[in-house]
Amino acid sequence: MKIGMVGLGRMGSGMTRRLESGGHEVATYDPNVASTAKTLRALAKQLEPPRHVWMMVPSGKITEQTFAKLTGVLEPGDTIVDGGNSNFRDSQRRYKEARKQKLSFVDVGVSGGIWGLELGFCLMAGGDKGVVKRLTPIFETLAPENGWAHVGASGAGHFTKMVHNGIEYGLMQSYAEGFELMYHSEFDLDLSEVAGIWRYGSVVRSWLLELLHASLEEHGDQLEEIAGYVEDSGEGRWTINEAINENVPVPVISAALYARFASRREINFSAKVAAALRNQFGGHAVKAIEQAKARPDRGRK
């Protein structure tokens, strides 16, 4: 199958390589990276109708601009796929706008980070059943076995990914707090060793724990090279907003988001753990100690 990929960053480049390895032909466009096309119009010309173009760009303004440009160069019957972390309300609006121009629009929540090239990307697709069915060969190549689903109507893909990331916040914060307690305890614990043994047989074993172990092995038990300054990319806030709208209590996710806010004021070890985990699974940049706008860490007890 032939598809266009717009955006060749951490995720888009890995997805492109995985698709090509799976036998698909991928035309690409990214103004900052060597691509097969120099413009979106040129990209459209490299594809045969009905065209399928996948946007893998940052949510917000860039996605909005890219979507608008694509609707101007694509033709009736073509499909736009948004695989970024867009707000599901925006995806529902874009679906309606695309339909007015006789274009199809599919929102796909993508999880897998920088490891997706090797292990596959978990995909949550929202949109019309027939359009999603046409894209099945693409989804099956990108995802590991049993790792994708058509989760519902327009917006459902990004809504599901939003909740996924809210849960991720809570899981990361739980690990972060537990390891901070061990870090400050009276015992001279080898945190890398503890994380290592918990990977086998423990009820708290997970891929996140494996990544934490890898980070402790790489940076040492005190994560000295990593500042405890944890960014958030928006999905946690959106999850909490929707929970408020639906009168659903989400105290753990809320507390995890507030902990990220707090990390930007005072460095603590739990924030270092959360920052290290974001770097491991998503390739998100970590701040060096001197870069953080926070008070210096007082070190272990």
Strand and helix map with partners:
Blueprint: E1 2-6, H1 10-21, E2 25-29, H2 40-45, E3 52-55, H3 61-73, E4 79-82, H4 88-100, E5 104-111, H5 116-119, E6 122-126, H6 129-134, H7 136-142, E7 148-152, H8 156-183, H9 191-198, H10 207-219, H11 235-245, H12 251-263, H13 269-282
Parallel strand pairs: 1-2, 1-3, 3-4, 4-5, 6-7
Antiparallel strand pairs: 5-6
Helix pairs in contact: 8-11, 8-12, 8-13, 9-10, 10-13
Structural summary, described in words:
The chain has 301 residues and is an alpha/beta fold. It is built from 13 helices and seven strands. The chain has a seven-stranded mixed beta sheet, with helices on both faces. Helix 1 (10-21) links the parallel strand 1 and strand 2. The longest helix has 28 residues, at 156-183. The chain is elongated and about 65 Å long. The termini are far apart.
Keywords:
301 residues, elongated, disordered C terminus
Task: Estimate percent helicity.
Answer: 40-55%
In the sheet with the most strands, the strands line up as: 2-1-3-4-5-6-7
Global shape: elongated
Overall SS class: alpha/beta
Order of helices and strands: EHEHEHEHEHEHHEHHHHHH
Give the number of DSSP strands.
7
**Can you count the helices?**
13
Instruction: Report the radius of gyration as a whole number of Å.
Output: 21 Å
Into which percentage range does the β-strand content fall? Answer: 5-15%
Which parts are unreliable, with pLDDT below 50 for 5 consecutive residues or more? 293-301
Sheet with the most strands?
7 strands, mixed
Please state the average pLDDT score: 93
Separation, N- and C-terminal Cα atoms: 58 Å
Assembly type of the chains comes to: single chain
